[in-house]
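[Q] Does anyone have a clean structure-token version of this?
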Amino acid sequence: MFRIALTGLLLLHGLIHVLGFINLRWLTRVAPLQRQTLIPVSENISKLLGLGWLLACFGFVIALIGYWVQRDGWITLTLISVALSQLLIIVYWPEAKAGTLVNELIALALLLTYARLRFDQRADSEARQLLWQARSSRTIITADSLKDLPLPVRQWLTASGVVGKEPITTVRLRQQGLMRTSPDGAWMPTQARQYFSIDPPGFVWKANVQMRSFLPLAGRDKYTGGKGNMLIKALSLVPVVDAADAKTDQGSLLRFLGEMCWFPSAALSSYLSWRAIDATQAEATMQYAGVTAKAVFAFDAQHRLTCVTARRYMGGGQAGKLETWYIPCKAWKTFQGITIPVAGDVIWKLPAGDFTYYQWKILSIDYNKPALY
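[A] Here you go.
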């Protein structure tokens, strides 16, 4: 919606400037401008200003092309075109003043676009750093590599296809879903990209969330160096959430642990220990950077991971409380020889009832490819 609106503004506003060129350069009555100015302008200067209207038109159109093909410099060119346009509007204020509102709208759109670019650049820089520090491994996972794990975990890793392959050291994935912030809240479409490092453990999750009011939210959740931080900004500009404390650290560690379902060979990591509960369940304990948390992994008769359950802090600060956090899986698919869950929910099991706050679906995933999309 935003992209279409900005495209329409740049294109229509640029084309309207052609009328100024036609009227002032060739002295015809085709355009609405009748050469009424705030200050006296000679005939020659009027023709010269006509070229200014044409240059502004070209500036807006070229900037629009740059916007669509994602070329650097289109924002700067748009700002120059807005400045030239507004200068011409001031000269021909009696008849051209309505164009000021359009220039203001374009300037506002540029501000929001710049804010989004800055937000993305920060998240991308964090993701690059995460992938850069990941330690690679050329060893091959064998059946003997799994011998110290509880039986249900061994069966899961074998069925998932990790045996005979190198350990997964980095992950990148595309995800879509529906998110809401309260049990009776409206679902908000979400598109996300996520990057993982397995050793050291960490992730960067970057998302676009579309509210019903068409107000876009930019979200970035990360877990690096044992610390978590959730950042959400309205219009990529106004902070809505910026959580970073001990409870957030515990929640982020558990998120990494729960999302290990997408890179199962990480179950062999040194910061994890496993305890069998029964034939279909095992408890994982993750200890890293002074934080410890546990989660229960459950498997079906085909040894596929079906759900992860943990006690996780819901929120941070004084209001953060330990609640049961539950991730049921609904579908599975094989990528690069690894079978993983590709759809499911994220649910808080609260005293007042279950609160499903996210429904997710994996669109694509790449292993051991430490580069951004």
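[Q] Thanks! Anything notable?
[A] The two ends are 23 Å apart (CA to CA).
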